[in-house]
């Protein structure tokens, strides 16, 4: 028997910093549904270490934060977005403090926050909760959301696809989503407005700092629903993940370098000054490429990150989580350098949104890592993304409130097509495809690219896509197959964007075009659904006339 349809004013897909901020900012009169693919708190937010950037220090200014962000973004940031996010930074941080986030303080007054440094920032401006900032933010917001009377939480509930006017008729717009529950059933959930807050897509790569959930579901769903995506070629590789065969995804925060950590070759020689005068605190694209270059040049598996010259108490006070985790793998960072390697970390591109988080589809919003908001351009500066989640989560909620009256009541939705058959033997093939995709993306669309490598990736992606379409059409869906389908879509978008950008800029480096294009204004790479056409040109993000 068909269970009754869930129906909300606002359905938020994702429960990281972006999703929970949006939920908490909406007024309690609205019925809000929040979906989480796993437990509510699981996601990149929970694992964020370094902190959240905001202008708080007396020697700092909004102009300086804006300039640093634009410099790191290598000509592709949208200045209006950067200005908006930076100017709302102090307010966003105050909101988090009011929610109860226990940021690290100095002195006795309890109100003076310790600020650390990370790459690209010319000042100390990163608030943090020791080295587990994301956990402090996520668990604080989780408590708030669980206590809210108007918010209904669905854990282990995976959105499969958005439901639009194409299926229900009426004015163009979003009407809800099909959702796979823990019982294996797919049900429609209706809403007047839907917010995508599904995080990034770094699981497209073999080695990543991200949790398993980061399979780009929101980007793939928005693309299938007809939204434009942009800048997918700019995958950020974090320079320093612990190198250990059982821990290829454990991040060593950039704040370790911010507090004096040095990068060394395996024989103990420093090398970063040969690549950039800012040394260890150059923007991430430069540091990751330098490490990759030295590893290939010397044929070594890792480089070293050394902070053991600092007092042991300083290290354990600032980096208790990292210190403890490394001990579990046999490394004592108070006494010895750590072996580190780069890994896929952040998706700078995504679903195009304007300053209010609106996508191309009426009623559909997006916030956080799933988006291309114009903040990061060709390379995100450290600790700007948690800030983006809070600023855009709040902006989206405010815009929804302003516009909800214009959006239709949630309609009765068509049920999911259940005519597919179960065939558990296919599961093994899906798993193989998973491995294949993540490996060819790592090998061919990684830190250093070439035309030939991208062509090889394109060939493999095409084959994989047709196989996945076949499974998807015939077999009953499960989480693995759905994620694989989304990853294949995202891989396709990354490859198409990388092939379209015939220059090196920010995080996209290709040996065949090693310099930035000299002539003209650099454009974002915008992909348009249906035509799957890569075009270049500057995007004008809309500004709400009410603002
Ligand atoms: C190890 C690590 C350290 C980092 N450190 C920092 C830092 O110090 N400072 C900083 O600014 N940034 C940092 N980042 C980046 C930052 O943490 C993320 O960009 C940010 O937290 C993303 O938040 P989000 O809300 O967009 O997504 P996430 O926090 O990733 O949440 C995604 C949510 O979407 C849900 N979801 C996904 N797909 C579906 C689906 N199909 N159906 C239903 N739900 C779905 C998931 O269950 C989850 O709830 C770090 C990232 C990592 C991985
Ligand atoms: O702690 C880190 O290095 C991660 C970080 O700041 C970020 O990704 O913004």
Automatic annotation (TrEMBL):
One GO BP? 'de novo' NAD+ biosynthetic process from L-aspartate
Q: What does this protein do?
A: Catalyzes the oxidation of L-aspartate to iminoaspartate.
Which residues belong to any copy of the FAD-dependent oxidoreductase 2 FAD-binding domain?
A: 9-386
Report which reactions are catalysed by this protein. L-aspartate + O2 = iminosuccinate + H2O2
Active site per UniProt: 284
Which cofactor(s) does the record list?
A: FAD
- Please state the protein's primary subcellular location: cytoplasm
What is the E.C. number? 1.4.3.16
GO terms (molecular function) for this protein are: L-aspartate oxidase activity
Q: Which pathway does UniProt place it in?
A: Cofactor biosynthesis; NAD(+) biosynthesis; iminoaspartate from L-aspartate (oxidase route): step 1/1
| Domain Fumarate reductase/succinate dehydrogenase flavoprotein-like C-terminal intervals | 435-517
Keywords assigned by UniProt, alphabetized: FAD, Flavoprotein, Oxidoreductase, Pyridine nucleotide biosynthesis
Listed InterPro entries: FAD-dep_OxRdtase_2_FAD-bd (IPR003953), FAD/NAD-bd_sf (IPR036188), Fum_R/Succ_DH_flav-like_C_sf (IPR037099), Fum_Rdtase/Succ_DH_flav-like_C (IPR015939), NadB (IPR005288), Succ_DH/fumarate_Rdtase_cat_sf (IPR027477)
UniProt xrefs under PANTHER family: L-ASPARTATE OXIDASE (PTHR42716), L-ASPARTATE OXIDASE, CHLOROPLASTIC (PTHR42716:SF2)
Name of the protein this chain belongs to: L-aspartate oxidase
Record-stated family: Belongs to the FAD-dependent oxidoreductase 2 family. NadB subfamily.
Location of this chain's protein in the cell: Cytoplasm
């Amino acid at each position: 028997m068909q269970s009754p349809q869930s129906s909300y004013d606002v359905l938020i897909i994702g429960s990281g910093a972006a999703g929970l901020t949006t939920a908490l900012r909406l007024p309690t009169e609205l019925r809000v549904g929040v979906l989480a693919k796993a437990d509510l708190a699981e996601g990149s937010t929970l694992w964020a270490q370094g902190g959240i950037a905001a202008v708080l220090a007396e020697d700092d200014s909004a102009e300086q934060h804006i300039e640093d962000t634009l410099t790191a973004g290598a000509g592709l940031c949208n200045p209006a977005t950067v200005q908006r996010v930076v100017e709302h930074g102090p307010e966003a941080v105050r909101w988090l403090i009011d929610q109860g986030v226990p940021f690290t303080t100095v002195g006795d007054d309890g109100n003076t926050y310790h600020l650390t440094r990370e790459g690209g920032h010319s000042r100390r401006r990163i608030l943090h909760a020791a080295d587990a900032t994301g956990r402090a933010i996520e668990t604080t917001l989780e408590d708030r959301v669980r206590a809210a009377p108007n918010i209904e939480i669905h854990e282990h509930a995976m959105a499969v696809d958005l439901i639009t006017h194409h299926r229900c008729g009426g004015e163009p717009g979003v009407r809800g989503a099909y959702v796979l529950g823990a019982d294996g059933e797919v049900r429609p959930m209706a809403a007047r407005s839907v917010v995508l807050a599904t995080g990034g897509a770094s699981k497209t790569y073999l080695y990543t700092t991200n949790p398993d959930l980061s399979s780009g579901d929101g980007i793939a769903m928005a693309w299938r629903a007809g939204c434009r995506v942009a800048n997918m070629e700019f995958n950020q590789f974090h320079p320093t993940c612990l190198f250990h065969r059982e821990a290829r995804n454990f991040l060593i925060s950039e704040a370790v370098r911010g507090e004096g950590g040095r990068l060394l070759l395996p024989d103990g020689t420093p090398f970063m000054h040969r690549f950039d005068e800012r040394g260890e605190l150059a923007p991430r694209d430069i540091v990751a490429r330098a490490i990759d270059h030295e590893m290939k040049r010397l044929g070594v598996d890792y480089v070293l990150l050394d902070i053991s010259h600092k007092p042991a108490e300083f290290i354990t006070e600032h980096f208790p989580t990292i210190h403890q985790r490394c001990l579990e793998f046999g490394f004592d960072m108070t006494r010895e350098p750590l072996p580190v390697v780069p890994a896929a970390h952040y998706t700078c591109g995504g679903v195009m949104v304007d300053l209010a988080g609106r996508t191309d589809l009426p009623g559909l919003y997006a916030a956080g890592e799933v988006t291309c908001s114009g903040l990061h351009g060709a390379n995100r500066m450290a600790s700007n993304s948690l800030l983006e989640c809070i600023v855009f989560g709040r902006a989206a909620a405010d815009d929804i409130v302003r516009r909800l009256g214009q959006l239709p009541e949630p309609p009765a939705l068509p049920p999911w097509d259940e005519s597919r058959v179960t065939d558990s033997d296919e599961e093994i093939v899906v798993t193989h495809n998973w491995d294949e995709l993540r490996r060819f993306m790592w090998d061919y669309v990684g830190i250093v690219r070439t035309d030939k490598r991208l062509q090889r990736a394109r060939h493999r992606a095409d084959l994989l896509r047709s196989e996945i379409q076949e499974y998807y059409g015939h077999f009953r869906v499960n989480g693995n197959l759905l994620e694989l389908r989304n990853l294949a879509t995202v891989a396709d978008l990354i490859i198409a964007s990388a092939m379209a950008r015939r220059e090196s800029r920010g995080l996209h480096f290709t040996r065949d075009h090693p310099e930035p294009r000299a002539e003209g204004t650099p454009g974002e790479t915008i992909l348009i659904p249906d035509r799957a056409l890569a075009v270049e040109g500057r995007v004008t993000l809309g500004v709400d006339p009410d603002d």
